[in-house]
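Observation: inputs received (chain + iron/sulfur cluster).
Thought: call the complex predictor directly.
Action: predict_structure
Action Input:
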Amino acid sequence: MKRSTDKAVTHVLNNHKGGKQLQTVWDRYEAQQPQCGFGELGVCCRHCMQGPCRIDPFGEGPDRGICGATADTIVARGLARAIAGGTASHSGHALHVAHVFKKILAGKAPDYAIQDEVKLKAVAVRSGIDVEGRPVIDVARELLDKALSEFGDKGEPLTWAASTLPLGRIKVCSELGIVPTSIDGTIAEVMHRTTYGVDADPINILLGALKCAVADYTACHIATDLSDILFGTPQPVVSKANLGVLREEAVNIALHGHNPLLSDIIAQVASEPKLIAEAKIAGATEGLNVVGICCTGNEVLMRHGIPLATSSISQEVAIMTGVLDAMVVDYQCIMPAIATVAECFHTKVITTMAIAKMPGAEHMAFNEENAVECARAIVRQGIERFTYRNPDKVCIPQESSTAIAGFSAEAIIGALAKVNADDPLKPLIDNIVAGNIRGICLFAGCNTVKVPQDHNYVEMVKKLLAENVLILATGCASSAYARHGFMTSEATKEYAGEGLTAVLTAIGEAAGLGGPLPPVLHMGSCVDNPRAVDVAVAVANKLGVDLSQLPVVASAPEAVTEKAVAIGTWAVVGGFPTHLAWYRQCWAVSW
Ligand code: BF8
Ligand code: SF4
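Observation:
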């Protein structure tokens, strides 16, 4: 099977100098064939030590597990636990930002600061906090307390969900009994009800899973809001994407993972003249070149214009270029295989988080109380590693595309305000009503080894754009579109239908881009998916309708992780017809 539709990735896979013993995710996938059919269908259970139990999907063998669980119960429990796993990841991410926020307000993390007071006040007002005449620090403290209370036993609906979703959705959630009152409590509840001998009613289990997905939405929204307050709300920025952004004459350092707490500081120190001079003394005539991978790459692309090297499925391929001097990781979507691939090259893999270490990698604990010094030490490891580079192993592909990123909800509304300052949403709504924009599709999620990388994204988007559907993208979906050149004005001219082209041209020219807006708007990382909801909610509230009545859909056509399952599930709760491709099956669901 073809491995990737990305020419840069394909070039490196075919021409790398890592040796024949080098294995990638695609080799390991082939070695796993045939994969277990019971597992693919989700009808295997090992929730207790009497198992594993398997249900025969052909009706010829057991139709119940040893405890009597049916296939429906087993599948529902497995899905619920996947959603709980994804929610735990987003909860951990959001709580980490909140804890650092707390240190900042206590004066214990001097390298961070509140960079976006406008966003702070906007989130505070939305959360019911009085801001008039109050010092910023007081507002920040009250907002932080509110955020932290969402994780524990709050005993009332979560503020971030209740204050950002429209009434119609809140009513649906209330009627179904899926209003969470604690992020972490809801995760624990799913783990409880899916353990041996608790909830056996598949519908009831799935309702618990939906409640957990609402908790996931809440955690994602908190992570986005607090990150914007600390690092700035993204605005449109022009950069590059794909492996061609790596440079032979520079020290190349890849930031990989998810949380901007680490990557934003490294992005900042990498422009320090002293460190650049050290890189040049080491022989890198072009100094330092920091690039991003996965969602942390999206974070620093959106806020700093740092080029995006590649996405999750091709993370090993970045090392196989032979010019990556350090790969610095925090947590989530980091394959343990990168340390093994790095053995074939000079690349140093550096783990930084206590909960995410890796055999074969060097661990450099990142301490937010001393963030800049930690970041400098990490960058110096990259500089030192550069001196071990083997010129015979260099294999940098040519490909890189221009990518306009940074479309936060605020940036989109800001661009629309250039067309109609008094009523920014009017141009969007008018064009939807007139049929110039036939709908909006949010693409989210990963790249899976089970289809050629990016194939589903590219084929689907070409058809949707031709049908005048505006595209929003996050996570590895946004990486796919950035690498394939869909985030440029030229892409609008090439792929968008007549009506959509006219709208994007009018907005782009009014916003001073000198051409159309890109047809695919990069809205950030996976935790940033609520940015898309914020835009949809603003439109729904203005029209006085529910989200389910808008022509907005969501798709994760190459999903991999439990996080993608959690996000896809809250998109369903949000009323968006949602497509999630998983284990070679496609589920299309709506509420
Ligand atoms: O959170 S899209 S592979 S990198 S899970 Fe991971 Fe999937 Fe990529 Fe970001 Ni999201
Ligand atoms: Fe089997 Fe039931 Fe135990 Fe699952 S919980 S492994 S179905 S006995």
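Thought: report the result.
Final Answer: The chain is about 45% helix and 10% strand. Residues 45-48, 50-53, 65-67, 69, 196 surround iron/sulfur cluster (ligand 2) (CB under 6 Å).
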